[in-house]
Specification:
- The chain has ten helices and 15 strands.
- With 354 residues, it is of the alpha+beta class.
- The longest helix is centred in the N-terminal third of the chain and has 34 residues, at 75-108.
- The protein is globular.
Amino acid sequence: MLLTAAECAERIGVTVRGLRTYEQRGLLTPTRSAKGWRLYGEKEIARLHEVLALKRFGLSLSRIAALLEGRAIDLDRTLGMQQSALTEQRQRIGEKLALVGAARTKLSTGGTLSLDELITLAKETTMTQTSLDLIAQRRYEQARPRKMTPIDPELYDRYVGAYQFDAIRGGITITRNDDRLFSQVTGQAAYEIFPESETEFFLKVVPAQLVFSVDRDQTANALTIHQNGVELVARRIDETEARRAEEELARRIRENRPQPDSEEAIRRTIDEARCGEVESTRMTEPLATLARERAEAIAEELSAKGELKDIRFVGVGVDGWDVYRAQFEKSETEWRIDLAPDGRVRGLFFRTLP
């Protein structure tokens, strides 16, 4: 089935002029009838859906054109991006409604709202675009194909060194091997990174990019990893500090010593997750954002496992994360957790054991 421009515009909710603008920008390529009329079929409608979705996330048409240039239609990616944003939006609206409901209940019983409660209501019930919109937008950008741009390998020396993450445990080490540059996150293998420009690099093994910040003396002082919709900053540290951090991690792994309060954090997180709750003040921002995105799915998965029976410490992983086994009525799970120096959870992962 093919639609004319007028039919397509009416059924989608755009204007014919808008369709022509998208065509002029190279975003749409409708087929033509024998008489030269523009015709829109499934392929064109799917591409139009991608364009409109990215436009709603605040991207300009030029930016959308750059993102989609040379790419096949990936409707599933776009729908996943929209689903994540809508799920987060639904959860946030539920939280706002609960706050308003609690305030009205208090007022109906003759109570009054304190200054702190009024401030919380004003702040938390403001209808702003959710952070998950930005996460989805970043994921789309990070997953696009990258093209290697040859640069002078002598520039690699400015990036070589150790970097410490701000928001998560561990760091990343950049090394050079002749005309090749490698990155190695603590506890992981080293992978080659490839230049897009003099300061921007990408990995081929996963959809991730590294962007270096360079001082006036042309030495990198920090780098930012772009992956999974999140941006993580790592600051350059000297070799002595890097070696001290590695020694402390090795000592804790050797002694099999858990981080203080990690078991309590696991128990609290499981209790909250089973109810679909995310206490963002107890998490670093990157983790809190991802947790809010998956809150509903995790609550459903954990509820299906039955009541929590027991939690026991297993050991410290090679990456410094504490490993626990949580026994539920119907299955056993493995949990890995990492805490920031201030006690907030900055890394969390779980899986169901066979």
